[in-house]
Amino acid sequence: MSLTFSLAHLMGGIVLLCGFLLLSQRRLAAMITLYQIQACVLAAAAFWQGWAQHELNLYLTGIITLALKGLLLPYGLRQIVLRFNLRRAVESGMGMALSLILGVGLIGIAVLVVLPSTMRAVSLTREDLAIALSVVLLGLLVMVSRRSALAQIIGFLSTENGLVLAAIGMPGMPFVAEFSVALLVLLAFLVVGVFLLRIREHFDTLDVTGIEAIERRGR
Amino acid sequence: MILLPIFLPFAGALALGLWGTPRVGAIANAGLSLVVFLLTLAVFAAPGHGLIHADGLGLLFGALTGFIGLTTSLANIAYVREAEARLRPVLWRLYHALCQVVLGATLLGLYADNIGLLWAAVEGATIAATLAVSLPRTASALEAAWKYFILGGVGIGLALFGTMLVYLAAQPALGPGFPAMSFAALSAHAAKMDGSLLTLAFVFILFGYGTKAALVPLHGWLPDTYAEGPAPLTAAFSGPLLNLALIAILRFRHLLQVNVAAGGAAMAPGPFLLTLGLASLFLAGFSFTRRRDARRFFGFSSIEHSGIAAFAFGIGGPAAIFGGLLHMVLQTLLKSGLFIALVSAAGLRGSAAPGQYAFSHLRGMIHSSKYTGWMLGGAMFALAGLPPSGLFVSEFIIISQTVQRNPWVSLPLGLGLLLCAAAMLRNVGPLVFGPAPPHTKAHKAGAEMHLVALHLALVAGLAFAMPGPVLALFSSVSGALQ
User: Fold this and answer.
1) B138 → chain A, closest CA residue
2) Chain B closest CA to A30's CA: distance in Å?
3) Domain-by-domain residue ranges, chain B?
4) Cα(B337)–Cα(B379) distance, rounded to whole angstroms?
5) Cys-Cys crosslink for B455: which of A84, B28, B117, B337, Cβ 3.0 to 4.6 Å?
6) Can you tell me the ipTM of this complex?
7) d(CA B69, CA B132)
8) What is the pLDDT of residues B191-215, one digit of tens each?
């Protein structure tokens, strides 16, 4: 049982660390890589919880997380970066030191809020919940402190990883796999949305026929 | 039986999305909405049981949603005829499909007896609504949709976290598994739930669903969405989606209240709701001035009325909840009627495209069409909540309950209501009776104005002569959720 605890906490900790490092990264490509690592560790955590709780649901969540969030979404994000030539784009916004200090503060708040109010809950859930809330808040901080749409999206994706982390830690909660699928639909729309938005910025229209016309004329 | 009104819109959305010219789509959309409305009435006879079943609140607001869906889709036929050329046929198909998805998801949320399913329904409705807002494909529409998506997404995330915390708080009482997610089981065992965890959950729920209910400070998306989205769909937004979020807040508030009453460790939910409600009321009151776009203006009016409902829930007790629910129902009827009139009025002045709703452009509506002008003025006057209007009744109930239960907050409430009413009334005169822009010709009012008249009549009827069975349903619902 103690191995269950320590491994679950280790993986939760890595997810939190990735969420924290997102704050310190200025380049989009690095942020995407961090997100990918976070999603893969999250998938591993889901598998581990599935094994510990004997829940088929959680294995399913792990597979979905690994396939879509660990592989497909980062691929899509990288495509956006390549296509719109953002590889060298440097994010400006809030200063890095300030955002890191705020991040530490948010983690402190999450721990202070969750631990006292969950005295009666199972201890595994307690600490997992504190970690998950920290990841959620850090993701929101990334969204607030960055200007570009893509960086905001990555912040949102990280927030959502925190939510899934909380869900897999809940003892015997129904609908976990369904939740992660529903969230994924939202994420997919967001990524597609930013793709279309960038197209608009470049061509000032979303109407793809216009772009085809431009291509026919040879730009 | 209960599943039919939920799945029919989704199945219909698929068909509407794949086939049909815009006009055929609009008629099919209206036909489908008629069937869904009849089904929401049929649910009264067979409310079902288990995961998806309609309690009193669900029945009441399900029928309301069905009705708004029907009238909006009928008015939509005229809108499509006027606006057909502005979008490609594929986008019109998508538009009609999205209308049905919003309808189906809202009904699912109202009928779900499961906190997870409720969350999923709100999420689905948000995605569909965002896509719909982006449909005009103008830069400002995309910006509004993006804002909605980001704010709505954050709200949905917070609501999910709150939902999971509620599940965790229910563990001592109900143990793992489905019962800990069912509203019926939760409210029966709320006294034994973990109070402090429940309070934490409620904060997340309030901010999560509060985003969807456009409570200040989470209201940022709403005026833009109203102003930039396709006009008839905003009429659908203005009511049912906000109601769904408010009802979610009301249901979770009830859990807290029961826990507090039984001596649990939870905090009383009143102060949270009162603060957000008053903030919404005042922000709307101050934002009404200097609005040039009529739809943005009425967006702030929706924020105001959301705030009033949240305030009523914060006061608590069966009578205040009754007032709050009545206010939501009447407000929804009035606002959707008003939007139908507004779209029709803009159509009379040339185009009902987004951006054609400036007050200066629409002023003196009575010179274009008497009927449209009077209906528009009537709906606006009713929204101000002065005596002949139905909202007077609900606001009176709320105020008298406030004086009785929490006299001090009745001062800011009265001030806020006065501020909003004055701003609303100030615009009625110029918009309806003022001098029309040059070259205005008189037109015949569209047939959809009869729908507005129907809405106004329903509001007056419900407020001043509510039929016995409806009154009994209202009372039992608000008694159970006090």
Assistant:
1) A205
2) 22
3) 133-480
4) 7
5) B337
6) 0.86
7) 15
8) 888 888 899 999 999 999 999 999 9
